[in-house]
Amino acid sequence: MSLRGNVLDMPELPDIVAYLDALEERVGDQVLQRVRVASPFLLRSVSPPLREAEGRKVRGLRRVGKRVVFALEGDLFLVVHLMIAGRFKWREAGAKIPGRLGLAAFDFESGTLMLTEASKKKRASLHLVAGEEGLAALDPGGIEIFDIDLETFRETLVRGNHTLKRALTDPRLFSGIGNAYSDEILHRARLSPFKLGAKLDDDEVARLWEAVRQVLSEWMERLRAEAAGGFPEKVTAFRPEMAVHGKYGEPCPVCEAPVQRIVYAQNEANYCAPCQTGGKLLADRALSRLLKKDWPRSLEELEEHKAQRREP
Ligand SMILES: [Zn+2]
Fold first, then answer.
1. Is residue 65 within 8 Å of 78, Cβ to Cβ?
2. CA of 272 to the centre of ligand 1 (A)
3. What is the 8-class DSSP label of residue 261?
4. CA dist 205 to 123, 151, 156, 173, 189, Å?
């Protein structure tokens, strides 16, 4: 779990890719023998019944937005959304589910994939769905950065005319980007989180486009190298190599000015004023109006907009 003050972040594209690599190696082509569910809030689908997943071989691993998908034989998909505090652990086969944090265990011959959630609020979810249509229904619809061209990127940014922070983190617009990497991307692009997508000039769009792909690729490589064949056990949105995210008050690696923050509705955004806002500190009344209107109010809210919630 990532925690700075009261602010939490969820695993994003590079973290999910690291999980997928590790899972592919361990359970790709293996039979899912059994699913043990410990938390009554985890399973959010009723049909097909979860038992249907058992005894089926994993045909492949996929990512849908920030969700991890196990494609099972027989056209079934097991979909896990870790939300903020959900994590995977790889344990010996048949390992006991840890009491307080354990949500579920997925048993394979080679080992047991444990799903835990280090939070009182149980937000992580599990769906079993049939067919590609069933899977598509869980897709918030954001486009994949590495599948599109500059023009599509521009059109998506302009659509809705959101602030850049909101646009990048909205899973209905872009897939897999959340609070942490959006901070890093905007810093790399030298753009204010509050700039409106439709107001960017050609040069700024191109810079942002470069930055999105650079930052995500660099982090995917870094996390892959870090895992080095092991299972990613330390998944966090706060890493020492980050330029601004989680670095409030620390020197910007480009200009050495102290990193600034905006705290709003349980989200914290970090930016460097000289690098991104022409030195302006974003903290006046106009900002509060903008925050109310076009800021990711709660990343959880955005992530959950399609999930059928079952509240305790
Ligand atoms: Zn700077």
1. no
2. 5
3. E
4. 35, 10, 11, 16, 9
Domains of the chain: 9-136 (3.20.190.10), 145-276 (1.10.8.50)
259 C-alpha vs ligand 1 centroid, how far in Å? 7
Q: What is the pLDDT of residue 195?
A: 92
Which is nearest to 188 in space by CA: 253, 108, 238? 253
Burial class (CB in 10 A: 0-12, 13-18, 19+), 92: exposed
237 CA distance to ligand 1 middle (Å): 20
Question: pLDDT (tens digit, 9 = 90+) per residue, 216-273?
Answer: 999 999 998 988 889 998 888 888 999 999 999 999 999 999 999 887 766 788 999 9
For residue 176, report the distance from its CA to the centre of ligand 1, in Å. Answer: 25
- Residue 228: both structure tokens together: 């080095």
pLDDT at residue 296, rounded to an integer: 67
Q: Which residues surround ligand 1, an ion (CB under 5 A)?
A: 252, 254-255, 272, 274-275
Q: How far apart are CA 30 and CA 72, in angstroms?
A: 10
pLDDT at 167: 94
Alpha helix locations (H) across the chain? 13-27, 131-136, 150-158, 164-169, 179-189, 202-227, 273-276, 285-294, 299-303
The pLDDT, as a whole number, for residue 222 is 94
127: phi then psi, degrees, rounded to nearest 5? -125, 145
